[in-house]
Recover the amino acids of this structure.
C-alpha cells in the first residue's frame, strides 16, 4: 500500500500533538508529554500530603497496646484518636518509608461504616504514625476469649454480616486485609468496626531473622500462606495474602464466634502448620450447629483458594440462616468433621 508507514508516522505526530496540547493546558511551561506523567506522580504525593499530620499537632496519651514494631497510643487530635506509631529503632531505611506510604495511600481510600476511620498519618521519619478514630468498644477477641461472652445465634449472624459487609467493600476496592482476626474487630454498641486493614507489611514480620508467630495467628493462615512460611523470613519474603486468604480468616472468625474457642485447640504450632499445609481442616467436634452454619465454615476453609466463596455470597448465605440456634436433628449429627480435602 502507498505509504503505510507514512500513515503510522502521521498518527504518531497527531498523538504527540494531542499530548503536548494536554500538557500545555495543565502546565504552560512544559510541552514535553513526559512532564504530564511526572505531574500525575507528584499529584499522588500531593494528595498523600493532604493527609499528613504534623507530629507536633498530636496530643499523645497513654499506651494502649504494644507490638514488636508498633506502639498504639490513645490521644487527641480534634477529638479522641488512636495513634499507631512505628517504633523508631525500626524505621531507618527508605524501603520501610516507601512501604509505609504505600499502605497509607491504600488506607485513605476507605469509607465504610464497618471500617475504622482513617484520619491521617505522620509521614516524616523517624516519626511514622497512623491516626484513626479511637474504637470505644471491646474487640471480639476480648469478648470471646477473655470475657468468655456467649453470643446468641441472631447476634452471631449480625456480627458476621457486618464483617462481611466491611470486608466485601475492601475487596471491591481491591484491598486485601491480610490480618483479619478477632483482635482487629471491635464491637461498639452492636456495630462492628474492622481495623488494621492493609497494614501488615509495615507492622509485622518484616524485620528480624526469625519467624515470629504471635499467639493465635496460625489459626488464620490459609494453607497456601502456611506452606510459604519459612523459618528464616527474608525481608522481601512477602507472604501470599490474597482476597481468598482473607476469606479463610473470616472462616476462623466465624468458628470463634460459634464455638467461643480457637480452632485446632490444644495442638502445638508444628502440628497446625503440618496439618493445614496438607489440607486438613480443624475438627468440628466442638461445634453444635446446623448444616448450613457448618457449610459456611467448610467453604471458607477450602483448601483451594478459588473454591472459597466471596463476601457477597457469604452475605446471602448468612441472610438465609435461621436466627435461632437449631437443635441437632438426627439427620445432622455433630460429627461432621469432614477433615481432609472435602
Ligand atoms: P493487635 O491487633 O495484634 O492486638 P495492635 O498493635 O493492632 O495489635 O493493637 C495494640 C492494641 O491497641 C490492642 O489492644 C488494640 O485493641 C488497640 N487498638 C488498636 N487500634 C485501636 C483503635 N483504633 N481504637 C482503640 N484501640 C485500638
Ligand atoms: Mg490490631
Amino acid at each position: 500500500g502507498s505509504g503505510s508507514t507514512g500513515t503510522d508516522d502521521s498518527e504518531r505526530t497527531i498523538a504527540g500533538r494531542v499530548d503536548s496540547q494536554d500538557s500545555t493546558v495543565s502546565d504552560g511551561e512544559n510541552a514535553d508529554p513526559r512532564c504530564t506523567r511526572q505531574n500525575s506522580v507528584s499529584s499522588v504525593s500531593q494528595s498523600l500530603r493532604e493527609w499528613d499530620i504534623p507530629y507536633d499537632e498530636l496530643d499523645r496519651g497513654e499506651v494502649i497496646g504494644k507490638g514488636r514494631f508498633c506502639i498504639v497510643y490513645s490521644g487527641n487530635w480534634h477529638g479522641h484518636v488512636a495513634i499507631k506509631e512505628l517504633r523508631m529503632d525500626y524505621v531507618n531505611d527508605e524501603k520501610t518509608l516507601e512501604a509505609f506510604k504505600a499502605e497509607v495511600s491504600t488506607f485513605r481510600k476507605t469509607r465504610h461504616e464497618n471500617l475504622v476511620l482513617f484520619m491521617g498519618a505522620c509521614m516524616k521519619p523517624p516519626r511514622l504514625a497512623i491516626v484513626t478514630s479511637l474504637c470505644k468498644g471491646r474487640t471480639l477477641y476480648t469478648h470471646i476469649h477473655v470475657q468468655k461472652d456467649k453470643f446468641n445465634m441472631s447476634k452471631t449472624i449480625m456480627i458476621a454480616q457486618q464483617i462481611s459487609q466491611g470486608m466485601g467493600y475492601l475487596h471491591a476496592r481491591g484491598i486485601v486485609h491480610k490480618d483479619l482476626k478477632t483482635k482487629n474487630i471491635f464491637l461498639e454498641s452492636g456495630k462492628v468496626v474492622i481495623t488494621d486493614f492493609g497494614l501488615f507489611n509495615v507492622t509485622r514480620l518484616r524485620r528480624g531473622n526469625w519467624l515470629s508467630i504471635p499467639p493465635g495467628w496460625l489459626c488464620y493462615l490459609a494453607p497456601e500462606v502456611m506452606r510459604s512460611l519459612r523459618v528464616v523470613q527474608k525481608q522481601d519474603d512477602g507472604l501470599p495474602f490474597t482476597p481468598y486468604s482473607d476469606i479463610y480468616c473470616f472462616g476462623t472468625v466465624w468458628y470463634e464466634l460459634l464455638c467461643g474457642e480457637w480452632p485446632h485447640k490444644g495442638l502445638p504450632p508444628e502440628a497446625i502448620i503440618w496439618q493445614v499445609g496438607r489440607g486438613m481442616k480443624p475438627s468440628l467436634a466442638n461445634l453444635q450447629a446446623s448444616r448450613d452454619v457448618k457449610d459456611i465454615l467448610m467453604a471458607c476453609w477450602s483448601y483451594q483458594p478459588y473454591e472459597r466463596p466471596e463476601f457477597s455470597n457469604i452475605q446471602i448465605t448468612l441472610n438465609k440462616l435461621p436466627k435461632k440456634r437449631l437443635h441437632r436433628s438426627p439427620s445432622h449429627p455433630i460429627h461432621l468433621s469432614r477433615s481432609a480435602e472435602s
Summary: The radius of gyration is 24 Å. The first strand starts at residue 59 and ends at 66. Residues 64-65, 67, 70, 72, 82, 116, 132, 134-135, 139, 183-184, 195-196 surround adenosine-5'-diphosphate (ligand 1) (CB under 6 Å). The longest helix spans residues 4-26.
